[in-house]
Fold these 3 entries.
Entry 1:
Amino acid sequence: MAKAAAKKSAVAVPPAERRPALAGQELSATGVTLAVLPPAERISLRAPDASVAALSKALGVTLPRKPKTSAAKAGRTALWLGPDEWLVIDEVGKDPLADCAEVTALHSAVGISHRNVGISVTGPAAAATINSGCPQDLSLDVFPVGAASRTILGKVEIVLLRTASDAFRVECWRSFSDYVFTFLSEAARDAAA
Amino acid sequence: MIAAFRIPGAGRLKQAETTRFSFDGRSYAGVEGDTLASALLANGVHLVGRSFKYHRPRGFLSAGAEEPNALVEIKRDAARKTPNVRATVQELYDGLTAQSQNRWPSLAFDVSAVGDIASPLLSAGFYYKTFMWPKSAWKNLYEPKIRAAAGLGVAPDQPDPDHYAARFAHCDVLVLGGGAAGIAAALAAAETGVRVILADEQADFGGSLHFESGAKVDGQDGFAWAQGAVATLKAMDNVRVLSRTTAFGYYAQNFVGLVERVSDHLPNPDRELPRERLWQVRARRVVLATGAIERHMVFADNDRPGIMLASAARTYLNHYGVAVGRNVGVYTANDSAYAAAIDLKKAGVGVAAIVDLRDNPTGPVIDEARALGIEVNFGRAVIRAGGKLRVSSMTVQPKNGGGERTIPVDAILMSAGWTPSVHLFSQSRGKVVFNDETKRFVPGIYAQDCVSVGACNGTDGLSATIDEAYAAGAKAAKDAGANTVKGTKPKVDASESWSRGMLGAAPGAGPDTTVKAFVDFQNDVTAKDIRQAVHEGMRSIEHVKRFTTNGMATDQGKTSNMHGLAIAAETLGKPIPQVGLTTFRAPYTPVTFGSIVGHARGKLFDPTRKTAIHPWAEAQGAVFEDVGQWKRAWYFPKPGEDMHAAVDRECVTVRKTAGLFDASTLGKIEVVGPDAAKFMELLYTNPWEKLEPGRCRYGIMLREDGFIYDDGVVGRLAPDRFHVTTTTGGAPRVMNHMEDYLQTEFPHLNVWLTSITEQWAVIAVQGPKSREIIAPLVEGIDMSDEALPHMSVREGRICGVPARLFRMSFTGERGFEVNVPADYGEAVWEALWAEGQKHGACAYGTEAMHVLRAEKGYIIVGQDTDGTVTPGDAGLDWAVGKKKTDFVGIRGMARPDLVAKGRKQLVGLKTKDPKVVLEEGAQIVGDPKQAIPMTMIGHVTSSYWSENCGRSIALALVAGGRDRMGETLYVPMPNGTIEVEVTGMVFFDEKGERLNG
Amino acid sequence: MLLIRCPYCEEERPELEFRNAGEAHIARSPNIAGESDDDFEKFFFIRSNPKGIIYERWRHMHGCARFFNAVRDTVSDRFLMTYKAGEPKPTKLPGAAK
């Protein structure tokens, strides 16, 4: 075996190009616009109650404790997904995984930046578009701005975050993004009704 | 020119005949707002169909959704063809093309009407009796004949080109039915500010106000009031008003399915519009305002075209401006038919006579009829209708017998009374009670948060209806959380009111007769059939229904159920409540498959999952196979290669130089926490505590029953962090299985699971040249055998991006699996591919992967195992930690049957003729000469041509397999028996030297 | 489609988000390897399948992902209550006849 080749570390490999799923896809329909969001840093954060304060401090955003809520600060959003589970999304290029690495309190932080694809759904018919496949009540009383939940869209799982009264962020796994975008596109055609 | 039966000035439509349509190839004119029924009637057409069983000529019974007879096919083009459309609800549009059904060669002359003559053979329960003998005739004779003759309409044979929308909706108060009651309830609820949805199946709101000429509300004609009120509701932000929308099903916890017909009424629908929209509504409170349906009179030949419900004739006149005849007879057992006679008479239509079964009824409508000069007969029955393709007369007789008198008529309007529409209430699991005085079932015990108002609740008269509905609407809103109540109740200035009537067969169709007095028009069930069912031993109404098929047609017995029940009760000599009412089931009216399917068709039928590397493989001309929802590259044919040639080349190349394989679909779970190793110990058979960080182990996961559930290579990244891989198909269920144990059996463990299947793209580089291919792209990882031995893992960088590099092999060759974040997957693959090209490497697909692993005897869970295979059966005892005291499956594995001798064990098979490739799934026997059925001792689980071995290879589960090494067994196949030899499972490089080769 | 109250999300959510996970309160022995065949049979194979009140496990699969317990009437399909995994079997049921 060519042992020399094996040991020699590579020189000047051009870095691999990032090719996000559905990059840049958009769709406009009456009352609603869909857009695949640019890549973001994401972690799945798991921790017991006792660690929440330390993790909040390290992340710079207070991890929400109340079901179906989120908290956001400086381009970073923490979504309550379960009693010991948060999805942290950083849209300004800072790495929450690195921030958590400093924390000694009990937790699990796993990088999932590439696992998810974000799609924005905006416009007066945004809720109707999502309700084509999502069985939750998306009225502002029940699903207010900032509300976040893992749920269903058609035949797949999504995470839904309401970013404004007429805007949502839909997160899904990478290989489901084509299905989700197609579903939302078809739903959007009918959402103004 | 105006159609012959359109009465100038009558009705609410603009009588300009601008709408052309055709029926059975003949062209007609209608007016905007017509239904197909009203337009045909305006043209004097009554004969529109043939009945299901006897092929008797049929016309329109009703003017609404309850129609059992007037079913037609509406055809827009070859693919847009809808059978069994009720002409009474199909709105007319310009260019509409309709055809009658169930007739051959023509509607007026149908040879199958012999069924009418041969009807003694087709009596109740005939399916169960007539075709029982001889047995052999069923398949060859009876069934094909019945299938050809039976059925309602013809299903379209092309894919449905329309699309269907779907919506989940939530509201505080859902009002079902948009007549006076529904509108009043919706107004009351809406005025409080709560979220209200009001739905009605018709194009226009108003319900019975369509025909009730005597109704006045808030100083206006009732129908006009309804339109104004609905306009008010539509303008409110908190209200959604849905017309052409049928509530077809009422499910648990106030979950109601509605179908909105969006474009079936449009002449040239915008193809962007869905054909229908399914609303799945969750309501805090439901108000049922579904009205009542008029019943027909059950007398001989009551199905002749021209015989219809009195309220239908009134609707055609008062709403559509159409007279259903020139000289009509009326047959009734209650007051409401008088109103029809009065309206028609006032409109200039001749009313030959009113025949009233009651002895001495009194009331204002009777006085008014008389004052208009209409002949009114009490205590008399219509015992027979004359005419065939159209009614021509009615024969009247005193109800207790006596002289007959035949009166020529061209239509008969009938009313036996009104049946409250309790369908949705009953679907909600509410229990109805029988009111003996009014002879009707009304809502009794409620099972859900709903309330019935108006006619469906047995409330008679507009004034009482609006009082009740308005109060109920306000209360529903309050119960749903409203606190402000404002607004004013609509004021009823004039109203109509009637109740009572009769149930069952009318005189002349009694037990001593053999006449065809129809109870259920759509399924051709007569009063005699019901009695016969009872005579033949049916006691429960559920049995009578099934034996006679009464109420089982697409109209679900809207007009027939109560009559059928009354006749059964009378025959049984029991009161009606004791015989019981059959259960109402969804859908209320037929629902298209399209609306149920909604978006879930074509690309959205099921998600198609593709890896990050998929586009590259596609560009290379890969052939893909479906693995669960994933598309996986199956093989990469070069020009001129078939699958066999491509797979052979890929297999040989991997072992000669190297191959690249997209393994991204493998399930991946990151197990993190101080108790991660403890958790792994419990979930896998293997020991994990002592696995050094940086090393990997092949793990087996069992279910509690001791059978293999999944397998995969697990790398320990750090003391508290494992990177677990699962099979592609098993990923979701393995995650669920692990979460289940973690959350419910081992919640004390500090460990968390995260799916990282899609975080990482995985590129397997396998073969003697694999290290040379990868090494130039790697930073920060020493790839020497000493630093990175087989079954180890390192984190570093490849192509400048973060990577988890596994040294592992599913081919038996030196091998690596490169994990990079998914968005980099394709670019890293391209870089590895470029390196690979320097060494003559190939891309290989799942088929070559399967062959290569089989050459090494590596199993695939789900192919070589089937949920009944233990680690011992699979020859994997070595992977079970012998010193462990607990793991999932430890006890199940020790069950007597699972450790008994003679279990099926995985072994290799070599065919005596090396060129013969066995079929996967083929059964194995020990003695090929034994009598059939043979004792099967096992089956082939994997079988391939192995170019590397120069022969076929196979794996099989064989009883006592490992004790049969060298034995000859037999695989009987249709073309002869194949001889095989039992061997070990490793066919290539038995010593495993190539892992470091 | 039922509405099911998730004790972790503290609200009723559509059934589509949930998955049934069989009968509840069947504890896995900490010494499972030492169990007799009879005890293992009872633990693994035997379920009550009652007509009426059943205690069962559900997972809020597409929600908070937690397993929890529910009391449901198999006749009416009505949920009487739900409670968190690990909490004791309730002795009093709201709204149940007796």
Entry 2:
Amino acid sequence: MTIKTKKTGTAMVKPRRLSLGRKHTLEVLIFLSPWIIGTCVFFLNAIISSVRLSFSNIAQLKGFVMEWAGLENYEYILAYDINFMPIFMTVVKDTLINTPLTLVFSLIIALLINKPMFGRGFFRTCFFIPVLLGTGYVMQQLLQIDAMGTVGVGIVLPPVLRGLLGNTIATVVQSFLDRITLILWQSGVQIILFLAGLQGISPTLYEAAKVDGATQWEMFWKITLPMISPIILLNFVYTMVTYFTSSDNELVGYVLDQVFVNQEFGRGAAMGWVYFGFVFLLCGIIFGAIKISSRSRDK
Amino acid sequence: MKLNGKVRQTGISHSRPRWSFNSLAAASIYQRIIVRVFYYLVLCSLAFVFLYPFLTMVITSLMSDADLINITVKWIPNEVKWSNYKIAAQQLSYKRYFFNSLLIAGLSTVGHVLSCAFVGYGFARYKFKLSGPLFAVVILSMLVPVQTIIFPLYIQYSKMGWLDSYKPLIVPTFFGYGLNGAFFIFVFRQFFKGLPKEMEEAARIDGCGPLRTFFRIMLPMSKSSILVTTVLSFVWHWNDYFEPNIYIRTPGKRVLPSMLPSLYALLNSEDAMELVMEDGGFTFNNAMLMAGTFLVVLPVLIVYSIVQKQFMEGVERSGIAGM
């Protein structure tokens, strides 16, 4: 009796397992199919032709006949184009300064409005308003008005302080404040994401730490920061990409000019990829750093 | 979810005392008050910096010519001039472009919610060999900005005959692409990952297929993520003018934000003088520009003010934190 059932049991299990596996693959395919189609049609295709374009010259504009040119385009933009490198370096410098500042400020603000307090809803809406105004023309026009001095810049150094500091230092401080203003205006989404992250940390962790006599300062470094490190990464990527695509990014304007005005398609594509390489490298470094730090924590 | 909410609530009530610095726990009540006042001062000044562009816009848009010239008038105009809005709306052909924008932003938002929830669920629930690398591609598509690949896309759409229509803007959103599509896939994946599996398993045992499980059980449960995606996708699409400007050539098909530059150009040109003359006298353009700008973002502001509370709660519950 027992032997019989065992036999039939194994005989039945085998094909079922296979079909389960197949079912699983089928389900995966169903759920990912929109995205896979999208990737093939709207992403991979464009990526591949953009890469190919960066290694080619346009032999004939009509019908878009490409001609293999090797590294010519890259050589040109890196060695001969007198505009590209300076613009690229400014953008690199700006990114390296602005991104950490954005992250730090949005984290501070998120920490400030994370706790229950009077007027929480109001403050949260305030910090989200620049997102609603958009990064496009709207914001640009508002900034331009500021630049024209008709209304004054966001944070203005009080005249008294200006007198105390002397003109040179005051100008430096003022330009720093201007930068901060701009950064703050562009950090709405980051603040929201940090808030979400902070809300996701279990309060029991803080309670346990408090029982053990940890100070606020220690709790921030030992609990808050490690717990939101994924959000830091996400925010980092988001900040880079928004800056990358923002209309006041000189380099993007220059690349688009190359493509749509000068019709230097290959060079434009090459510039795009040089810039992307830089962004990708930065993200890789941050990603690696977070991974290593979390690994060392686990040990 | 319910349990989660409860834990958080108790957490909040517990966290009340640890709200100033630890060293101040034993400090006198005066010191505490000082810290609190300082805290609100910092918050209010930060809030002011954030509100500043918005306030400037609203106030300037209502100013009359005399107020604009007058330097002493900065915050409170002597007379409120509503006619700025009337002229700006006329010049923008507001009604027509409003519906263009609404169509694009609305459909794209629907596309994002549907496709990103669907795909995000697939990434959250199914583990297979390629799930890691495929998700890396999602992240990569978030990193590659549209500007880098806009030209091949343009060529592709022209071959497909999609140029000068809304298809290049709307169709990709139904496939998890479009404006920040990868970001939304990420949001949904994080959310579904945080949900307990028991619900689905119970449904499966009762004979519910995977698609039905998703649409009947999982999707209704992800209200908070849907709301977050809806708001952000709508706002981003509404404000975007880069892609519409590239794909759409017929002036009548344009979107609202891309009409702003032409408004600026118009107001800076000679014609502006005549236009303004009709209204009576010489004017600075700023007021009208700001009125136009405000009109463009107004729908977004209205939408946000309606869902503001739920949106914030949605962000907090979306579980982006738990990777």
Entry 3:
Amino acid sequence: MFNRDTWNEIFETIQKNKLRTFLSGFTVALGILIFVSLFGLGNGLINTFDKFFQEDATNVLYLFPGKTTLPYKGYKSSRRIEFENSDLADIKKNFPMFLEYVTPRISRNRLVKFEEESDNYTTTGVDWGHQFAEKTIIMKGRYLNVEDIKKKAKYAVIGRLVEQDLFGSKNALGKYLDIGGSVFKVIGVFQDDGGDREERGIYVPYTTLQLIEKNTDKIDQIVVAFKPEMGYMGAMAFESSLDKFFKDKKFISPKDQNGIFIRNVADQLEQNQQFARVLQIIVAFVAFGTIIAGIIGISNIMVFVVKERTKELGIRKALGATPNAVISTILLESVFITTISGFTGMLIGIALLTSLGESLAEDYFITNPYINTGVAIFATLILIIFGAIAGYIPAKRAARIKPIVALRDE
Amino acid sequence: MIEIKDLHKSYKMGSNVLHVLKGINFTVEEGELVAIMGSSGSGKSTLLNILGMLDVADSGEYTLDGVPIKNLNETKAANYRNKFLGFVFQSFNLINYKSALENVALPLYYQKVPRKERQERALKYLDQVGLKEWANHLPSELSGGQNQRVAIARAMASEPKVLLADEPTGALDSTTSYEVMDLIQKINDQGNTILVVTHEDDIAHMCKRIVYLKDGVIVEDKKVKQVRASAHV
């Protein structure tokens, strides 16, 4: 069945029936190509998704002050809530067993000058822990440390693009910057996976920023990092006790939803992962549909092929082809074509995905689309096997036709 | 060579049963050239198809070269056809995407003859029918007479015991008909047994024996003096 002669016969048949070869080959190649592309693009979407929510630490709570909507304990409603340094100390004092670090965040838009160059940048006053909350990566120099905060040092850590904008090709480390009228020494340059916006930022000690602003102790936001081993449930519990603590301290009604806001990344992460899972299911469903369509396509073509060859098969039978020879002629030909074209389609699909890379990231939220090679090969094999099964049924019928009937079929 | 006894065959046509062969008894010796004649519907093609194992009789005995032909499954029938029989059809039945040489070599492929030997033998038979120069042409590039000669070469390539020709000249003009008959006579001269179904008197008289069929029975079976086709060419 698998000798060279059989294959010669098959190659000849394939070569001399180009339309037929093209039709079945094209269907399979296209089916696999679409499957691989869809699956890959879906994976790319999930990639983007993961990236979105992994640029910042996931074990943090963000606390924002709001405005009360209910009167409480003698305070009127519409009172603006503010955070101050004592809140940081209270968190550290009351929840030491949950905490990894706490950092405030005071954001200001400041004109920043170096020699002739100047531009507006977001300057954020932070504590040392902020590096981990934002997953800031230090390229050179160092981040702010405990000493800098305590001494209210006039140090700045600048983004990669700030250095590029203001210093050009020069090294910013050790140089002095004018930030909103005060002079800061550059002690570090960072990069951030969060993108250009984050890399156009400057970090300074929050204590220094407060000192410049008439020695205030107000804080915009508080970032609280909890111990990751607490897990999702622990994070939720910690969130509600923080909420209770601050509502109590700031005299906000427990029923007031707007006095203080807590954004829980763990909660969001859970939701997002759920969304990504749904996305994956949809992608798998569509891809599965493509494969089914491919199977139906190849089945139709096999029926057509056998129908077209009825007379030829009758002649072959009259000349002494056994039913098995007839079936194997049809099947080997079909399996050969589907295998070659299936794997061609698969390779084209993989090449296509690889060539896309990051090019769709900006507009279509698809980053590095890829398909697991195992999945691609599995889908291709499925199509080949079902193509063979779909071919076997009409082939068997053709093998059973009496030659005389087949020969009469003009 | 061929021995049939009390052969019956009927076809179902909706609710009607068409009794085509009503008890045929018939013997052919080795080296004979027999014409089977009859008007259309007399059952001559059905008889040939049963002899060729392309169709199965309802009842009766059939012995071919001492081998009783019965209880055939498809595989067995295919092997017998391949070993014992060569076919020539009215409409040539060549495979249209294969060249003349490949068509002739096809029965040898099913005899599992190695490729090289296959090609050599096919070329030899093409040469015998005078088409050696046309070996690599497709059937569509050949005339009707040439196609029929390719078909005869193909039928002879497997060196069958019996050559069965179903209206071999039916699709040809008289000049090419005689050329084809000349070829068949020459093959018969070499000692091959040949059965020719025809409804043309002149073709029948180029055989050595004529069997007349009418309404499914043999009405006449006579030896005739062979007219050589070469006289007409």
